[in-house]
From TrEMBL:
InterPro entries: DUF4440, NTF2-like_dom_sf. This is Nuclear transport factor 2 family protein. Residues 7-112 form the DUF4440 domain. Pfam families: DUF4440.
Length: 124
């Protein structure tokens, strides 16, 4: 049952992020959210929303989940994803595969996105 719930939450997160839905994204993110992007930059909840969700900052073309794997231990879930992404950030276009590690925490029977880290995959 958890797999279906977390997979759906992960899919919903991607859909909300690429749609630029700031309020809905804010609702599924934990208040102590932390994220490190593939360039090593660190973000809290509001700076992540500003940089990677707000349509004034980012134009998402696509974010597709290639692989999804989860480990659930009580109230904590670790989700490993391989994402194919295309987006425009400022004046720069980005396209590539990213391995992402997302952490979720369960509070009051609801899973919230706690944060994570992304690494660009250089394919040869």
């Amino acid at each position: 049952m958890e797999t279906l719930n977390l997979k759906q939450l992960s899919d919903d997160r991607a859909a909300l992020q690429t749609a630029g839905d700031l309020e809905a994204m804010r609702a599924i993110m934990h208040d102590s959210f932390r994220y490190v992007d593939s360039s090593g930059r660190q973000f809290d909840k509001e700076t992540f929303l500003d940089q990677f969700v707000d349509p004034a900052s980012v134009q998402w073309i696509t974010q597709e989940t290639v692989t999804f794997d989860e480990t659930v231990k009580g109230e904590i879930a670790v989700v490993q994803l391989l994402l194919e992404e295309r987006f425009i950030l400022g004046t720069n276009a980005y396209e590539g595969r990213f391995w992402a590690l997302h952490l979720y925490i369960k509070e009051n029977e609801e899973w919230l996105w706690q944060g994570g880290q992304a690494t660009m995959i250089h394919e040869t």
